[in-house]
């Protein structure tokens, strides 16, 4: 990525179960989350209660460097439990 460039990360999710993706903090902040995380239901399930979709993370490259972003999929009230899923993404900003 180039400084100032945006990217969108989509992760499968079903918040009706209580699970949400959490982007873990990184230092230094080479990329920064832009706005709130959004949930987009699957088109086929629009209007149906309890159906899945995707959580959408919009990120912007802030400064040159390299970082590995990590997400954990868990319920907020179970923070001490191992996550149900994890994802990571290596990002290089030039």
Task: Give a short synopsis of this structure.
By secondary structure, the chain is an all-beta fold. 0% of the residues lie in helices and 52% in strands.
Outline the structure in words:
With 94 residues, the protein is an all-beta fold. It contains no helices and seven strands. The strands form two sheets. Strands 1, 3, 4 and 5 form a four-stranded antiparallel beta sheet that branches. Strands 2-6-7 form a three-stranded antiparallel beta sheet, with no helix packed on it. The protein is globular, with a radius of gyration of 15 Å.
Q: How are the SSEs placed, and which strands pair?
A:
Blueprint (H helix, E strand, L loop, with lengths): L5 E8 L5 E5 L7 E3 L4 E4 L11 E9 L3 E11 L9 E9 L1
Antiparallel strand pairs: 1-5, 2-6, 3-5, 4-5, 6-7
Offer a few descriptive terms.
single chain; 94 residues; mainly beta; four-stranded antiparallel sheet; three-stranded antiparallel sheet; globular
């Amino acid at each position: 990525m180039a400084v100032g460039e945006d990217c969108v990360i989509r992760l499968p999710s079903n918040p009706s179960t209580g699970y949400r993706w959490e982007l873990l903090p990184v230092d230094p902040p080479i990329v920064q989350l832009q706005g709130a995380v959004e949930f987009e239901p699957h088109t086929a399930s629009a209007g149906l209660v309890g159906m899945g979709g995707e959580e959408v993370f919009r990120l912007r490259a802030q400064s040159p460097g390299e970082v590995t972003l990590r997400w954990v999929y868990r319920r907020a009230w179970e923070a001490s439990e191992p996550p149900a899923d994890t994802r990571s993404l290596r990002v290089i900003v030039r």
